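Hey, weird one. I pasted the ALOX5 sequence into the form twice and got a warning about non-standard characters only the second time. First submission, copied straight from the form history:
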Amino acid sequence: MVDVSLKTYNLGVPNNGKFETTDQLVVTLTAVIYTCSVAHAAANFQQYDEYGAPFRFPFTLHGIPPKDKSPVVIETILKSIANRAELLGVMSITKVLSEKATQSLGDFEKQLIVDPPAVKIVDEFRQSLRNVGKTIDERNKTREHPYEWLHPSAIPNAISI
């Protein structure tokens, strides 16, 4: 059996999977870190807010969709929505998927970086995250609906489901 994903994992790496410059490595590692932190937070952490209110954003509907704009009777609506077990299942799954299970981005569970120049870079990164967080906090003060999902404190260090 051939695992296509495993055999083609390096297609996103320049030059047939061979790094030739530090910049190529930086671009690839940035994409990996982004995918495992920011992209994961953007795709997962709002799920309960969206699907946890099933009548506002139904996860599933049964039956045939209406083909015209004629009025629909309540019985048709009640038959089309998910039953109690389906609703509770979706709510439970999306609640679990919406939970952050690791430390925030830049707040590592184990401090393995001890090289002084590397420690300085991590400190600068953490300060950048704090600055972004302050900007979001300031903007949220004037918003009717504050945006919290991609606040640096809400972005995890890793994917942990």
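That's the output from the first submission. The warning seems to come from a hidden character in my clipboard, not from the data itself. The longest helix spans residues 116-141.
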